[in-house]
Amino acid sequence: MTKSLPSQSILITGILLISINLRTSIASVGPLIPFIREDLGLSNGLAGFLTTLPLLTFATFSLFAPAIGKRLGMGRAIFLGISILTLGVILRVLGGIELLFLGTALTGIGIVIANVLLIPLIKFRLPEKLGLMTALLATMMSLFAAIAVGVSVPIAVDWNWGWRGSLASWALFMVIALIVWIPQIRRPKASLKQVTDPAKNVWKSKLAWQITIFMGSQSVMYFTMITWLPDMLISRGWTPAQAGLVSSLMQVVSLFGSYFAPNFLIKLKEQTWVVLAVGIAYVFGYLALFIDNELITYVALAVVGFCMGSSLSIAYTLIALRTAEDQTTAKLSAMVQSSGYYLAALGPLLFGVSLDLFDNWNILIFFLLFFAVVFTFFGMSAGRDRKI
Description:
By secondary structure, this protein is an all-alpha fold. The chain has helices at residues 5-19, 24-27, 33-40, 44-61, 65-72, 74-91, 97-125, 130-157, 162-168, 171-185, 206-235, 240-265, 272-288, 294-321, 326-358, 362-382. Helix 11 packs parallel to helix 15. The longest helix has 33 residues, at 326-358. The radius of gyration is 20 Å and the shape is globular.
């Protein structure tokens, strides 16, 4: 598809601006949970549900996003998604508990519409830059998630904006993205193409469920960590700013794992031993968190961060490697993301409830160790050279 350089540049800029908004609204919550909990009188279970809720909406609406893209056209549907996300980010800071959770639910809906449709839009409008743009998309998402974790508390405390102002500040980037995206909604509809090649029933495939549980396990670990790690460190005497900073650095380290893992994996016939190595590294990283020492904590979280980035890339790569037909790949991707994020949604909530019951932060480490073992077991099975 031929397009002028200026219009292509606007499109690329728009995609990058959209991508930086796809994790900030979730990642910025974790460091601010102590402030939100104190202000609104939330239990630890409800506080954990703040991260769980957008995952539930993400998992549910991922099944409907392709139909929305087909009906409106991908450019308009992505604009709708970011508009809903912006509304949710603003709405959740305007009142009490009810508006907080309503706005949080809307953020999940907005994210999933844009997130699901960006890749097919890139493939349709920028086919010659598919690899580059996909890499930039993932990198910008992770990078700004890390930035959101690191600056949320300083914005709230040092700038004296409070948790409401800190969470609402990310709407500025969303508005900028919407403005730059306007030319894309004026274009003729670019809807999802119909795929006609035969597809397997992934819901009846043992291998598909292994990949799904593998994806769900790594998602449980990621979202539980970004939600509760700052609070755990604060309980050990760290300042909120220090806790947010080290959580941010953990996500920065994850960028290296995200970048290098796919290029290495596709060269291997089987990925079993890579999964085992990452699983063992997870276990050692989590075990080190039992030691209340600042230097050891930094090293442990660097290891865990690299594993987080690697494991997400492994999960996405296995979706492509374990399928033969394009339509089977699409169906497996929908299954993995929907079912996997339902599993992930349980993590922050279950731990929050357990903290209310037992008031012991070591439970968090045992919780993460359990899912590291599940991750390794199912990942090694999914890593064998087979096709659905």
